[in-house]
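Repro case for the chain-ordering regression, as requested:
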Amino acid sequence: MSGELNTDKVKNVKSLLAIQSEVESSNKIALSVDCVIFGFDENKLKVLLIRSDLKKYLGKWSLLGDLVRPSEDLDAAAYRILKQRTGLSDVYLEQVHTFGSVNRHPAGRVVTVTYCSLINVQHHKLNILDNELHWHDIVNVTDLAFDHQQIFDTCYKRLQKRIQEHPLGFNLLPKKFSLRDLQNLYEAILDTKMDRRNFRKKFFSMDFLIDIDEMEQDVPHRPGKLYKFNYEKYEKKKKKWVGIDF
Amino acid sequence: MSGELNTDKVKNVKSLLAIQSEVESSNKIALSVDCVIFGFDENKLKVLLIRSDLKKYLGKWSLLGDLVRPSEDLDAAAYRILKQRTGLSDVYLEQVHTFGSVNRHPAGRVVTVTYCSLINVQHHKLNILDNELHWHDIVNVTDLAFDHQQIFDTCYKRLQKRIQEHPLGFNLLPKKFSLRDLQNLYEAILDTKMDRRNFRKKFFSMDFLIDIDEMEQDVPHRPGKLYKFNYEKYEKKKKKWVGIDF
DNA sequence: AATTAATGTGTTAGTTTTACACATTAATTC
DNA sequence: GAATTAATGTGTAAAACTAACACATTAATT
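-- result from build under test --
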């Protein structure tokens, strides 16, 4: 920090007032959050959608969202929506991108901060009774309301990337899972097939799986071992440097 | 998309009106963009900062930003700031994160969408005459105004990650550069030392560098060859799949 | 008891990364 | 202008990682 201070008090006051008057004037920009809530069920990646309640998008599905309250942090707004719609707290939530095209919302200028959330569908079962709320297989997610298709695509791509570099996937699985479950999850999210033996080797070599010495129950084949993910160990040993690769 | 349509027109109208009234009411959230503008000069990574014009942050440095105009896209607002402050168009610009803590701005509720920009410092030279605008060596960037330190840290980390996976760095260099320039850039951004021979091998094996058959001029040692980055080839051949690694 | 379909474990060849050494070139020094 | 210096430019070998592939084991089912 070098250089002299040429502070102009008039300028200070003006700019503060300018901002304040903007904040208080009408013709303002509204702010919302939208959540792309992913689940994993029957070996398929799902997303939770609700019917649009706008005439313009009659019959279309849309993401779960709401306006941000004036005294509410962005993350808090996203958590509120999640709690409201799934009954769940303490879920994985990550801000992804903010969409603000001038004409993206028919009701006026609404900028939306979008979040990606991963939940364990076993845990909720709750507010899904709501007739307008449904889990959609992500391969069937097309033609959403507003710009929600674009938002969904962005969040899905982000998930595909993040799951390769961070242990997010476990948020979609039960605490105890088999390696087959884990591979099915990766194959569903990344839309690819992987070699079972190499997949297994990869995860064992990372050494973040805890063998809890239990087996799958009620499976119509030889039961596999169950594991938990060792978050503590991961936090200590996670890699910092990767290298140039593009 | 299955399920019958139980559209409730009253509900539709209500919710639309609710949003519209929110948009038009006062006590609204203001929206700004802030740009973290990186440059590379004398083998050091730099960031362009301006003196805060708020009394509360007298003497502190802050990022370049402004309120988003009611009929302006977010990206357009970021480009406007860049053009205004550096005179440059057609620069690398990427949205990074949106910060919206309730008390982050002393003038009221201001949510800010932050962008990372990479420019070639050779190209501008222009509006830098402004006494209040300075390039700061990033190692000396501490204690910025508002929550700008957090924003800067986030954008810098993002840059560190992105430069390993995408050819962003070339935006900070002249069109023609030596491999030494390129390595210095990577070492500055990633704050690390690399083996010169392996770095060289890595980039040659990617095969995205065009040997333009020119040499460095006016260097006080054996001049190195100059290269350009082959964006066309990169766009065709860039890798999609990487693999699980964390 | 035989069959089936999954889990669980190696092995090998190929590729990539890392560590490290020496020859070459042009500016600088004497 | 010859010797010195400090950079560029190239190569090699060990180690680590990835990808492709085969067989034994287990438990449910027939």
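Ordering looks correct now. Chain A has a mean pLDDT of 88.
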